[in-house]
Amino acid sequence: MTYMTLRIIRYAITLLFGVISTCAFSGLLRTKKDIFKVGEIFVVLEIIQLIIGMMIGFESTIAFYPLHTHLVLICILVYKFRIKFLNALSYTLIAYMCCQIPAWVSSLFSINHGKLAYAEYPCYVFMVVLTLYFIMKYAAWPIYELIQSSTKMTLIFIIVPLTYYLFDYITSVWTRLLYSGNYQVAQFMPLVICVAYLVFAVAYRNEQTKRIGAVWERTILANELKAAENEIENMKAMDQITKMYRHDLRHHFSFLLHLAEQGEIPPIVDYIKENIENINAITPQKYCDNEIVNLILSNFAKIADEMGVDYDFSIDFPKNQPLSNTEICVLFSNIMENAMTAMKKIPQEQRTFRIKIREYNNNMIITADNTYDGDAVIIEKVPSTNENAHGYGTKCIMSIAQKYNGFSDFKSADKMFQLMVVIPLTI
To answer: What is the count of structural domains for the chain?
Structure first.
């Protein structure tokens, strides 16, 4: 009778351990108030087990544990706490596997059911507390984040818990195959652990590579935004100088009037030419009503003139567009810079560039065409060349378009590169 009572108590402790560890892995135990969640789940499951135990007996209750406890626990996580089914399944399987830690350690005290037999139960309680402490302090959050990261990683990660779960019930609960002495049965779980380790190592390496690549791209984009902000400030400073020139016109006219009164015509001509060149060098061309766009296009127009590019800007910039000044600078600077870089590789007489901005069907449509040497291919709708540094400008353009639920499209034909960016307008 005492032995059966101890088994029932241990059975209840095991249920409590499983509920607490499952909730910890699920991210449901972040505050002290969350302990009530554990209490509610434990009480529900304990009541179900008591009812089933009285109906079919203790041993049969253990045999049907996956149905009346684990399945119910998964349903509670899914429907009450809005956890994805695959994730809830993973947390439950991992918690079940963790039950092996206190069970195995305490089994060392049950040898031959001798004097140490009853020491198994206090040892089991101690190991349950110790294991829960380790799970909640060190293991729960990393496992929660890993399972939340991707479905692929979750499927790989639960290979061992799922296999162990099925192996344990098939070989030790529903049958006694594990204790039959069969070599293949005894070595099955070590085989699974070995295979799962190799698969997880490869998958984890691939995920880490993707994560590092994503961090690198975010760093590049952040640098692009910072550079764009600096470029905007420089352009604004240049515009301020232009305004100062305009403000000082009366001084220039006074000087010219003095020269005219003295009959100094050649100095007048030279002075006027010099100031025209200075003003042209810093005065942005007005292509539209947006100051930033005018500054960027004017800056690149000067570069195009130096390179001998035949260019044309047709700009009807929508007023209700959603882009910030920094995003405008990043977007148009990369469009222009990519085009100018591509045209450096071809003879001057072949260099042509066209950019057009218009509003159509409540979208801002940006199209840009430029000649290039033909050394580029479109892979998965993204241009690619042999240059190691190529691609970040393109990714910036794509990122800005995607941010506003728009898209970008790249095409190349007959040594002509074509870009189209569509960004929905605000209403």
So the answer is: 2
Q: Which residues pair with 357 in a beta bridge?
A: 315, 366
Q: Is 134 within 8 Å of 197 (Cβ atoms)?
A: no
By the 8 A CB rule, do 25 and 144 touch?
yes
The domain boundary residue, chosen from 149, 173, 207: 149
Please report whether residue 176 resides in a domain.
Answer: no
| Rounded CA separation 144/350 (Å) | 58
Domain-ending residue, one of 123, 149, 175? 149
User: What CATH number is given to the structural domain containing 383?
Assistant: 3.30.565.10
% helix / strand / coil in the chain, to the nearest 5? Answer: 70, 10, 20
pLDDT by 10s per residue, the chain, length 427: 466 777 788 888 999 999 999 999 998 887 777 788 888 899 999 899 889 988 888 888 888 999 999 999 999 999 988 999 999 999 999 999 999 999 888 888 765 555 555 678 888 899 999 999 999 888 998 889 888 877 877 888 888 899 889 998 999 888 888 888 777 877 888 888 888 777 777 777 777 667 666 665 665 566 566 656 656 666 666 666 666 655 555 555 565 556 666 666 777 666 666 665 555 555 556 778 887 788 788 878 888 888 999 988 888 888 888 888 778 878 888 888 888 888 888 888 889 999 999 988 889 999 999 998 866 655 445 565 544 444 667 877 888 888 888 888 888 877 888 899 999 986 5
Containing structural domain, residue 314? 287-427
Structure tokens at 211: 């994560």
Please tell me whether residue 409 adopts helix, strand or coil conformation.
strand
Instruction: Give bridge partners of residue 420 from the DSSP assignment.
Output: 367, 409
Does residue 415 sit within a domain?
A: yes
Residue at 90 is within a domain: yes
Asked if residues 237 and 411 have their Cβ atoms less than 8 Å apart, the reply is no
Is residue 15 in a domain? Answer: yes
What is the token pair recorded at 271?
A: 């002075």
